[in-house]
From TrEMBL:
Pathway membership, UniProt: Cofactor biosynthesis; Fe-Mo cofactor biosynthesis
Pfam families: Oxidored_nitro
The keyword Cytoplasm belongs to this UniProt entry's keyword annotation: no
Protein name per its UniProtKB record: Nitrogenase iron-molybdenum cofactor biosynthesis protein NifE
Lineage top rank: taxon: Bacteria
Amino acid sequence: MSDALKAKVAELFNEPGCDKNLAKGEKERKKGCSKPLTPGAAAGGCAFDGAKIALQPITDVVHLVHGPLACEGNGWDNRHAASSGPQLYRLGVTTDLSQMDIVMGTGEKRLYKAIREVISRYAPPAVFVYATCVPALIGDDIVAVCAHATSRLGTPCIPVNAPGFVGSKNLGNKLAGEALLDHVIGTMEPETSTVFDINILGEYNLSGELWQVRPLFDALGIRVHACMTGDARYREVASAHRSRVNMMVCSTALINIARKMEERWGIPYFEGSFYGIGDTSAALRSVARLLVARGAPADLIERTEALVTAEEARAWARIAPYRQRLTGKRVLLYTGGVKSWSIVSALQEVGMVVVGTSVRKSTENDKQKIKDLMGGDAHMVDSIPPREMYAQLRRGDADILLSGGRTQFVALKARVPWLDINQERHQAYAGYDGMVTLVRELDRALSNPVWADVRRPAPWEQGDTEDWLDDNVPRLVPVAREG
C-alpha cells in the first residue's frame, strides 16, 4: 500500500461526522469498522467492490478497471442502478492484466493505452480508473497515469485508488467519495444556479427509486441538481458545490462527502429517508426548511405542507385495502445501514410488528432511531447464523423475512415468505408511490396460497399410510398368462 493511500485510509478512519468512530479510542479507531470474517461465511464485498458500486451509477462516463478480468466480471452491475439516458456506465471495461504484464512490468503502459482507446472510441466527459489488488501490489501508480493521460488527452481521468485488500466494501464507498472530492466536485460550474438547488447523497437509483421522489421535488420547484450517484451525469457531480442543501440518504457510505462539502462550501446537510410515508414527508419538510434558511422564498414551507397533505392522503387511500391483512403480521428484518431503521418505520405505519432488525453497517445514530421506533428493548442483532435464523423462522417467530438474496433460501427452507429488500431487488420502494408498492408486495408474498400448501403435512404423513396408498395409488393386479 502506498504512503498516500495509507494516509487517506487513516483519515477516513478518523471521521468526525461518525459518532461511532469518535467514541472509539485511538488504537481501536485505526482498525476501522471491519470485523474479522468467519471461515466459511460469505465474505461480502471488498474495497474495490464498494468503490465501484458507489461510482458506477454515474451514467455518462467510462468506468475502467485496471486489473485482471475477474475483478470487473465480479463487480459489474452489482446494483441495479437505472439510467434515464446514457448507457455507457453499463459497459464493462478492463485492462485485463495478464501474468506477462505483471512479470514484465507493463501494467502502467497498458493502462494508458486503454484510457487512450476508450476516449478515442466513446468520447466520454471523463474516465474513472479503478485500482485492484494486483496492480496495487506490484506498484502501478494509477494516480500518475491518470494525471499524464488527462494532460495529454484533454479528458479528465479520475483515479479511484481503492484496491480490494485495503478493507471492507464500506471503506471502498468512502474512498470513492474521496475520489469525487479530490478530482471531480468543484471542477466545473453549473450552466444555471438557483436558490432551489439540492444534492442527494448516498442514493443510487436502485430499480428507479430516484424517479419516485424527483417528481415530488419538481412539484415544489426544487431542483435535484446532483444525485450521488444515482442516474448522475459527470457535469452535475462536478458542479454540485453550487447547490444550497445536501440530503444524506445513506450516511455510512458518503458521510465524508457531506461533511467536507459543508467545510469547503458551507452547504448544510441532514440525514433523511424516503422509505415510508412519514419519513418521506419529514425529508421534504427538512429540505424546504433548510432552503428557506439559505434564501429560498418563505412560501416554500407552506407549499410543502400542502403537497405532503395531498400525497399522504392519496397514499393512505391506496394502502387501505391491504392494511387489514397486514396489521399484526410479524417481520424479521435482516438488512443494514439506513434500511435498518427506515424500513422499520415504513412497516410500522401499516401495523406490522418488527420482531428483530439487524444493525450491520448501522451507525450509533441508526441504532438510536431503531430504539425510538421499537422501544428500549428493541431486538437488534449484528448477524444471525443461518441455522439460528432457520430455527427462529420454523418456530413461527416471524411471518415473513425481509432480507437480501443471501438468506432467501433459509426462509424458503423454513417455508416462510421472503421479500428482497436489499440492493439486488427489482422493485422500487422510495417515496409515497414506493410505499404503496412495498405494501402490495408484502401482501402478495404473505397471501400467496403456495405457503399453505407447502406447510401442510404430506398426504402419507396424515393417518394410515396403507389407507392413503389404497385410495391414491393404483395397485398392479397380476394377470395369469395364457399357455
